[in-house]
Amino acid sequence: MAATRYRCSQKQPDCTTAVAVLREHLNTYVQDEPGALLFPGAKGGALRRSGFNTRTRWVDVVKDMDLPGLHFHDLRHTGNMLAAESGAGLKDLMTRMGHDNVRAAMIYQHAVRGADRAIADAIDKHISGADEEGDAPGLVVLEG
């Protein structure tokens, strides 16, 4: 388990689909030896940022996918937005993203479109008795 850029180590549950794609990549492109790089450079060493677009044909690939302007880091942002949309709490998102401060993790909270509707629907279900919590339906009005 490696330390993240924010000095905390993390091990996350596997996303089945992503693992399948990575296994295929490993079997096809990665040498079968300890310490082999997932995405090696042209000479077998580490893939440098300066050579990333050329080596991966990134610009051509995103153009073919009709996603011009997509950057590699946008994939991290997309994954973090999907995690935020799952309804996970801020602390869980921070852990998953490897962030050790709220400010960094809050960037992804803007992505939770429809959260207000989901919250209102959950409140409606409880008030109407349609939820499965077993609580008595209705509102509790506190006085004082």
Automatic annotation (TrEMBL):
- Keyword hit for Membrane: no
Extract the InterPro entries matched here. DNA_brk_join_enz, Integrase-like_cat_sf, Integrase_catalytic
Q: Which PROSITE patterns match?
A: TYR_RECOMBINASE
Is Zinc-finger one of the keywords?
Answer: no
The source organism is: Microbispora oryzae
- Domain Tyr recombinase residue range list: 1-121
Keywords in alphabetical order, please: DNA recombination
Q: Spell out the protein name for this chain.
A: Tyrosine-type recombinase/integrase
Please cite one Gene Ontology biological process associated with this protein.
DNA integration
GO MF terms, alphabetically ordered: DNA binding
